[in-house]
Specification:
single chain, seven-stranded mixed β-sheet, 4 helices
Amino acid sequence: MSTIRIEPLRAEPQIIETLSEILVEVVANGGSVSFMHPLDLETAKSFWMGSLAAAERGERVVLGAFDSNCLVATVTLLLDCPPNQPHRAEIAKMMTRLSHRGRGIAKRLVQTAESIAIEKKRTLLVLDTAEEEGASGFYEKLGFTLAGLIPDYAFKPHGGLTRTMIYWKRL
């Protein structure tokens, strides 16, 4: 297996293009990451341009995992919380290309996000994942605790409502 490198991402054209391709692939395969299928590439690009602009402002950190020089996975650490929550951050948009799943890449991305959260004096992480075809088992293995379920929280990418599972973890 080749070496995986994890680093914060910047708004470079090739990065935006690849992140957009990953987002379209994940949504097409049922990933519940706030978008509906079919997701066009331009909408995905617009999302990533906004997300990476927020990263430039320090509101979030968008991490990428590279297999050689190919971007294959991403996770976002949201840092822009209300004034009464400076101790909190949120894990969002955990996505791995289908070709690279099951290799421990997502685990390393979340662990890196946790390390950055600690560096930024965050002591609580939260996240949500769809109940159906979500990543609850993955997050539980990483020490996240289920806070509860919200019925009919969002539509699945191919239609139909799903419950969402809310998780937390103290750092």
